[in-house]
Amino acid sequence: MIQKLAISPPFNMTIYQSTGTVDGVSGDHIMLAPSFMVTKKDIDHIVNVLSMVIKKTFENINTK
User: Fold this and answer.
1) Which residues, including other chains, have CB under 8 Å from residue 17's CB and lie 6 or more apart?
2) pTM, two decimal places
3) Would you tell me how many other CB atoms lie within 10 Å of the CB of residue 9?
4) Distance from CA of residue 25 to its chain's centroid?
């Protein structure tokens, strides 16, 4: 759900989803892959957008 929301407007952020972070089978995680030439401004933007996406995802879950 986080990945689907992140890629949609107004967020327009690509993130990679996967499973198996706890024991190789259970658990979920997302991966961010900014360029090697990333600035503090870029990181701040990534963190802000991802925070909004996560908050909105949980809002959507709680309203169902």
Assistant:
1) 2, 3, 28, 29, 30, 31
2) 0.81
3) 5
4) 20
pLDDT band at 25 (very low <50, low <70, confident <90, very high): confident
**Max intra-chain CA distance, the chain:** 41
Q: CB of 31 within 8 A of CB of 18?
A: yes
Half-sphere exposure of 3 (CA within 13 A, CB side): 10
Alpha carbon distance 30, 1 (integer Å): 11
Tokens of 46: 């990534």
User: Which has more pLDDT, 51 or 63?
Assistant: 51
The DSSP symbol for 28 reads: E
Residue 31 phi, psi (nearest 5): -125, 135
Specify the DSSP class assigned to residue 13.
Answer: -
SS3 46: helix
